[in-house]
Amino acid sequence: MNKSILLVVVLATALTAGLYTLPKVVVRNETKQLSESMPGSRTTQAPMATQPGATAGNGAPDRSTIHQKPLSPEQQKQLDRLKTQFLATGSVQKEASAAKLIALFREVTQYDSAAYYAGLLATDQPTEQNLLQAGDQYFEAYTFAVDEAKTAMLGQKTRGFYQQVLAKNPGLLAAKANMAMTYVNTDTPMQGIMLLRDVLKQDPTNELALFNLGLLSMRSGQYERAVERFRQILVTNPASRKAQFYLGVSLAESGQKEEAKKVLAQVKKQEKDPQVLAAVQEYEERLK
Fold it and tell me: Which domain of life does the protein's organism represent (predicted)?
């Protein structure tokens, strides 16, 4: 299982006292992992958020950079070379150049920089593939952002590129489900919920939409509704340990202790990740 409760949900609000006490290592980008498994004006300056020592909109250090790996001198040289190559190359070679640059930024976990250059490519060459890539890269950066101003900026960028690609191909349901989650921390969170419901109208068993709605139900304390969503996932994908884990948590929080014990015991048998096992053990202690 991935070490993750969706960051945008957990850090946005207190899901419940129970979820807040889950180990912090269980926090990251669940939606990104799910979506990866489903079919489905130019500037030469990188944004401030991608630079070492960048600050958030409130002037505080940008805490979302703490996941970045330190660069070796060789990696820095390679990045500088690829950036120069990308900005100087003609249209025909630009996609190939961008692919190398984005891959290296992802390798060193500089997701906002990967998104920035994917966005430059999509703006220069707005094909369906490039727009989708830009949306996906910005969404990944969004899931790692911690500071409020940066989260808002990355969410807006994500929506911008996803809206463009969905105008070309409305059938990209993973893009629509990802975009929905960027509305969680805006003044119009219901817009995200409506998008997820729209995905389910087109595909009633869409795992990503069901999972996101399950997390949002947990966020609002509607644990019985969350139980329904995670059960739906397990009907079509019984092997989903993350759905099983959150089903167990939702059952526990909704007072269905005996069933919660059974579900969490099953997770415990199948799971090898020590951090997830720590969360399971914590719930088992509460359910005694």
Answer: Bacteria
Q: What distance lies between CA 11 and its chain's CA centroid?
A: 13
Tokens at 32, concatenated: 């990104």
CATH of region 1-40+173-288, choose from 1.10.150.530, 1.25.40.20, 3.30.565.10, 1.25.40.10:
1.25.40.10
Q: How confident is the model at residue 73 (pLDDT cuts 50, 70, 90)?
A: confident
Taking the chain, what is the end-to-end CA distance rounded to the nearest angstrom? 25
Which phi and psi (to 5°) does residue 127 adopt? -80, 165
Check the CA dihedral 156-19-13-113 and report its sign. negative
How many Cβ atoms sit within 10 Å of the Cβ of residue 135? 30
**DSSP string computed for 125-180:** S--HHHHHHHHHHHHHHHHH--SHHHHHHHHHHHHHHHHHHHHH-TT-HHHHHHHH
Model pLDDT for residues 13-42, shown as the tens digit of each residue: 333 333 333 333 333 344 444 444 443 433
Averaged confidence pLDDT in the chain:
81
Q: Residue 99 corresponds to which tokens in the numbers above?
A: 């692919």
What predicted TM-score, i.e. pTM, was given to this entire model? 0.76
155-205: pLDDT as tens digits:
999 999 999 999 999 999 999 999 999 998 899 999 999 999 999 999 999
10 Å Cβ neighbour count for 161?
Answer: 27
